[in-house]
Amino acid sequence: MASEPLITASNLTKRYGPHTVVSDVSLSIDRGEIFGVVGESGSGKSTVARMILRLIEPTEGRVTFDGIDVLAASPHELRMLRRRMGIVFQDPYAALNPRMRVRDILAEPFAIHRDAARGPEIDQRLRAMLDEVGLPATALPRYPHEFSGGQRQRINIARALLLRPDFLVLDEPVSALDVSVGAQVINLLRDLQRRHGLTCLFISHSMPLVRYLCDRVAVMQRGQVVEQGDALAICDHPTQTYTQQLIAATPELPALVN
Ligand SMILES: Nc1ncnc2c1ncn2[C@@H]1O[C@H](COP(=O)(O)OP(=O)(O)OP(=O)(O)O)[C@@H](O)[C@H]1O
């Protein structure tokens, strides 16, 4: 028997005053898959992801996470849900507090979720996680400005994974990075996703990247899903003109694949 999807979003709509920025979006994300949301800037991708995480309240619609009604969750339930969800933002520079040491940035989730780990175990978890994202333990006492963009994004990924979430939102995680650095980060994400059996929502404007990384994809245009399904099928045989234009607009990936 097929398992229930980890996430279902049904008829999500977001309006700001008279502006409808997301309109009637429905999708479901299976456990262990990477689901892509692709579209040009302003098409509503981030708004959909933030509504799923309930960082933004939808105007209409429903979200379930592991069968739990996310929008009806009490503050306590929401805290428990948030622990199971991580997010990596686009801009690795803006996402890290420049006045905090890496150790404190990474330990922050443990301060919020006090029962997740204590004392010496926290330090152990930080070191192990840094190792997983390819950074040395000597990073711990240093400040974000001492790191390159790619290294900073690795710190963001480590922070997002520290509480061992089931679900990770990747909001254009490499679009602020150089192509070769971005390729390394994409491969790291793919390895971590496989190793931990993570379920991911990957937001991107790049069809080749979606083709490389995602199992399924939803294509968004002006707040609506115009096409969704198997990522390879849609990238190789798009049925919508908009999808064809997106493909034509993005250069081929350089040698990303390792
Ligand atoms: N708080 C807000 N108030 C009004 N409009 C907003 C607000 N947040 C987002 N929007 C508008 O909603 C639309 C969708 O934005 P969103 O960030 O979801 O798009 P996106 O596809 O993720 O774009 P990008 O790739 O540039 O991040 C945009 O037109 C944006 O200007």
From TrEMBL:
One GO molecular-function entry: ATP binding
Domain annotation ABC transporter: ranges: 7-247
Pfam family of the protein (one): ABC_tran
Protein name per its UniProtKB record: ATP-binding cassette domain-containing protein
Alphabetical list of InterPro entries matching this protein: AAA+_ATPase (IPR003593), ABC_transp_ATP-bind (IPR050319), ABC_transporter-like_ATP-bd (IPR003439), ABC_transporter-like_CS (IPR017871), P-loop_NTPase (IPR027417)
Keyword list, A-Z: ATP-binding, Nucleotide-binding, Transport
SUPFAM superfamilies: P-loop containing nucleoside triphosphate hydrolases
Protein family membership: Belongs to the ABC transporter superfamily.
Organism placement in taxonomy: Bacteria, Pseudomonadati, Acidobacteriota, Terriglobia, Terriglobales
Species whose genome carries this gene: Terriglobus aquaticus
